[in-house]
What we know:
Elements: H1 2-9, H2 13-30, H3 32-52, E1 57-65, H4 77-85, H5 94-98, H6 101-108, E2 116-121, E3 124-128, E4 134-141, E5 149-154, E6 159-164, H7 168-180, E7 192-197, E8 201-203, E9 207-213, E10 222-225, H8 233-239, E11 240-244, E12 251-258, H9 261-318, H10 326-361, H11 378-398, H12 406-451, H13 456-490, E13 496-504, H14 513-538, H15 545-556
Helix pairs in contact: 2-14, 3-14, 4-11, 4-12, 6-9, 9-11, 9-13, 10-12, 10-13, 11-12
Amino acid sequence: MSSYLNNQNMQPNTLEEEIDLKDIFATLGRYKTSIAAIAVATTLLAAIFTYFSTSIYQADLTLQIQQPTVSSKSAEGDFMAAALEAQGQNIDNEIPILQSYFIAQKALEKIQVGTRYYTTKHFKTVELYKDTPFVVNADAIVERLIGYKFGLHPVDANHFELVIEPTLSMKISNVFRALGGSVSIEKQLIYFKGTYTYGSLISSPLFKITVNKIGDMDNSNYGFSITPNEYMFPLIQESLKVSVASDKSSVLQLSYEDNVPERAQTILNAIADAYKEQTIEVKNSGAKKTLTFIDQQLKGINDALQNSATNLENYKSAHIVIDPKEKGVLASQKIAELQTQRDEIDMQVSVMENLLNYINSNKDTTGIDVGSMSTISAPILSLIEKIQAADAQHTALVNDYTDKHPSVVKITDQISKLRSNLKATIESSLRGIRQRKATLDNIISQNNAALEAIPAQEKQLSQLSNSFTVNQKVYEYLLQKRAETAIVESSTVSSVRVIDQALVGDIPIKPKSLLVILVGLILGFIIGVAQAFIRNYLSNTIQTISDLEKNWLHSLW
Length: 557
């Protein structure tokens, strides 16, 4: 007997492992039915979960923000070119603008997605969108009922039953609140029931709505909820995602998640359209100010032109004059041309001085008078447009974020740098323009001296002709600029280009049905195997020869 025991003790570890492995498979074999049953049950539960879970779809849209460019040939000096190239449009700033309350409200003005419709099919609540058989127009609704689900049950072809009843979770929450003390009026449960006619106004202290029938009511259970546009922003913000396609890219990728794919497309396209329109509005505001300024200048120049024409005609009628000598004619024409150039320079100086004073005394640049922007250099115009665009971005951001938010701080620093560059650029340009003006004044003085030799009568005629010619040239110049500005205003296009309209796939992004079912199957096997070993461990019956040998050896010890 002792030799047998010694032999048993001297069995290699591999034999013990073989015995343990056999025990494992034996245990799995004994409980294979329960393991399979648990695996099937968990797989079935996973399938039921995916069936009743709300399917979420994702719509994707791609747009490009075209960068403003200015030719280096139009830059006035190295400093101005450097100032212009030092700043570029920051695409990262466009992301919070697209996600801002301002853009969301602009988008919601074009679409109506706050009222949602439901029905029950195959024990599952399904949301209807464009194929709803009825529509609801809400004239008024209390805040407590915003997003609250109304029940609608057709009675016959002309009547329906409207029901408001709290959900089970609301009832349970109300019970716990009641146990803790009295429940306020705002948190009391709402119960409502009544039968009404389609198309009639339903008026109550809580709401005023009208239900219009537009199709066949095939089901017996329908529902709807009402959310006004001003309450839709949180829903849009949590579902909208905006990202840059890649580093140093001007392409933005927008995505929107919704349980109704068509609605996701509609909302995403509306957001892109609202963003494009906002960029056009910023550009058009400058063109409108330009037209207003030019119209004011035209009125004054037109009065001066009419006055000089009348004076010239009256002088010719009252005097018999001879044609000025050739030298006087040339001098008069030259003076008229030089005077026109001098007046243009005066306009530039006046506009830029006013602009510089305005920038020094005002932080907000939305009121900058850009009336004569077409008369000055492209670099200055570009810097002004960048400041106004940055100010528009800042205005949109501060509606949603505090001054310490990184995006707000970033755009504020950008505006400060742009304003500094603009001041330096204008001051440099003013110095050059004033030097040109001084040179023109010297040339005009020299030509005026040439007229001193002309007889008085001819000289006066020449001066009147000169005044008329100058006013006429300035008037024609302003008319040309007004026409150019009007063309710019009518042909303004957005710097935003939609590359791909909102597209949505046929397969929901969540839940992942196959993955959930596979996880349920694997989890079922794990639970089944675990329960098999637990049951085997707790069992005290002899089921195999191995159990008999173990019990015999245990009795010998």
